[in-house]
Design brief:
By secondary structure, the chain is of the alpha/beta class. The protein folds into 2 domains: 17-173, Glutaredoxin (3-Layer(aba) Sandwich); 187-354, Glutaredoxin, CATH 3.40.30.10. 31% of the residues lie in helices and 15% in strands. The protein has 11 helices and 10 strands. The strands form 2 sheets. The protein has a 6-stranded mixed sheet with strand order 5-8-7-6-9-10, covered by helices on one side. A 4-stranded mixed sheet has the order 2-1-3-4, sandwiched between helices. Strand 6, helix 8 (228-244) and strand 7 (249-255) form a beta-alpha-beta unit. It starts with a helix and ends with a helix.
């Protein structure tokens, strides 16, 4: 069922989404407005903070933007929980459903809560809500802690999924320095042995199996040549191979066609890599998405397919990035991309230092 759901264009179609905004350039981050408003609540003009009278059975959404909630978070030390919505859709059923759940309401007391009108704050909506409507959690220092894309915008939401995301965000906010950062999505994959690969061949580099990489720290990125986010991300991953390859790191790119079933020639893919300056990474072909499913899509609803996985010397998944974009440059609109890239590099160093595996 999940497989059919994902393949029937419910996965965030990065190529199609490019029409919604200009091409993101690392270091500049000019991103377009993602339209969406506030459901029937009075939001002060110019996006000033607003408050909704709250009983003990509902959440006090005290802020109308992430920026306002972040200012409060720096004072209180609480992370931010931001719910994005469009008033074009009318009232937000999740606020009347899952967000009245007693467990969710109780956990919400640990957050600065913002109900964000995407139309009034398009930059924030683009940064935190990749599917345009989502729940995002942000630490007072700006780190993205977790995010939850909603599967059915008309539903009242899933209290269990929301409370789990809230718990993940609170745990990540308390993570001590020196520990590998938890992912904002896909936390359940951490600590599991990496699945064996089911690939259709290698476009560049010596063919290999997962077991051939035993004893090395391994980074795998799923990508496609029509993806603007992959174009922004792959050069930085190649830099990590150049920097740490001699110490025991192997970086591999697993190409997948988007959409599934589309036809592309090897020459087309290689030409794109040349244009991106990615000339050294070994590239495998996952044309049927089987390895992508085993690593990522079978785990649940996903924001993007362009995920990255870091395995220790024993082949255990220790870190992942749910996509779609990470790179060392962190200009306006790309701060989180740079933050996650730093998390990745720190995790690589820790795993390389383990020597004997995780």
């Amino acid at each position: 069922m999940m497989r059919g759901f994902l393949e029937e264009r419910k996965v965030f179609d990065l190529r199609r989404s490019a029409s919604l905004r200009p091409r993101p350039t690392p270091g500049r981050g000019s991103r377009p407005a993602v339209r969406s408003p506030l459901h029937g609540l009075a939001l002060a003009a110019c996006g000033l903070a607003f408050s909704v009278a709250a009983s003990a059975e509902e959440i006090a959404w005290r802020f109308g933007s992430v920026a306002e909630a972040m200012a409060a978070a720096k004072e209180s030390g609480k992370p931010v929980m931001a719910l994005f919505w469009s008033e074009k859709r009318g009232g937000c059923p999740m606020k009347e459903g899952a967000f009245r759940n007693p467990e969710v309401v109780a956990l919400a007391g640990s957050f600065e809560c913002a109900f964000v009108a995407n139309e009034k704050h398009p930059d924030e909506a683009t940064t935190y809500a990749l599917r345009r409507f989502a729940l995002a959690f942000v630490a007072p220092d700006g780190r993205e802690l977790a995010r939850l894309p909603f599967r059915d915008w008309e539903s009242e939401g899933d209290p269990a999924a929301i409370s789990a995301a809230m718990a993940t965000a609170l745990a990540e906010a308390k993570r001590p320095a020196g520990e590998i950062a938890a992912p904002s999505e896909g936390r359940e994959r951490i600590g599991r042995p990496a699945p064996a690969w089911q690939l259709e061949g290698w476009l560049r580099g010596e063919p290999r199996e997962l077991q051939d990489c035993a004893g090395r720290v391994l980074l795998v990125r799923f990508w496609t040549h029509t993806c603007e986010f992959c174009e922004a991300s792959l050069p930085g991953l190649q830099e990590l191979q150049e920097r740490y390859g001699g110490q025991g790191l192997t970086v591999l790119g697993f190409w997948v066609p988007k959409p599934l079933g589309s036809k592309h020639t090897p020459a087309e893919v290689l030409r794109t890599l040349e244009e991106w300056g990615v000339t050294k990474l070994p590239i495998a072909l996952d044309t049927q998405w089987q390895t992508l499913r085993d690593y990522w899509l079978e785990g649940g609803m996903r924001v993007a397919t362009s995920a990255s996985f870091l395995m220790d010397r024993k082949g255990v998944i220790r870190w992942l990035h749910p996509g779609p974009e990470l790179h060392p440059e962190g200009g306006s609109g790309h701060e989180e991309c740079a933050r996650r890239y730093r998390d990745l590099e720190a995790a690589i160093r820790l795993l390389l230092a383990e020597k004997g595996g995780g």
